[in-house]
């Protein structure tokens, strides 16, 4: 029996649980700080909060943090790592990962996504449904590439940045850390740290 603990009982958590089962994890349970008010999530059970998991880590072969918010995901991952958790990397069977790509610990690649040749992704990233991270992209830690977003060859994305659903970035663009790229944006120029860019072509809306 392969037991997996998922932290974060949300819509994203469900998708990660489904992915984990497709990857061969046959006993998947959730931990969420809203427990006991939140005690079930669709097909899965929420059995405790983060503190409960910290006391039960030896029962699980793997742990994944399935929280969409990049900063909260980072904080939970670091807490669990320091407690000795084994953060697993999940890749949905329908995703295509180049043998020459690198995925950091705790990174999740969901159905239909592509991570192409020589792309390097840090720890705790999400490559969401149908997203494309092209060759030679360099993603920091705790980056989220939303569904159907596409990063062209050689794009870099700093730690904790979020690429919105359906957004695209042209080749070799440099996107800073803690950046937010809005849904459907077309990024055609470099984006500084902490900026929010939206639209086609993408422009800043606030810093
Ligand atoms: C599986 C999953 O669901 S994964 C989750 C995927 N989720 C996403 O991709 C969400 C991405 N988020 C967005 O695009 C958001 O709109 C954000 C973060 C860019 C902005 O959100 P907020 O800060 O709340 O901004 P708000 O909605 O108040 O809009 C501010 C202005 O920017 C405009 N704006 C906001 N988002 C966008 C966008 N994506 N493209 C163009 N303009 C936009 C608004 O029209 C508004 O313009 P106005 O001031 O002229 O009226």
From TrEMBL:
The record marks 136 as: Increases basicity of active site His. Acetyl-CoA binds at residues 144, 165. Substrate binds at residues 10-12, 32-33, 68. Signal peptide: none annotated. Residues 3-74 form the PglD N-terminal domain. The active site is at 135 (proton acceptor). Belongs to the transferase hexapeptide repeat family. This is Acetyltransferase.
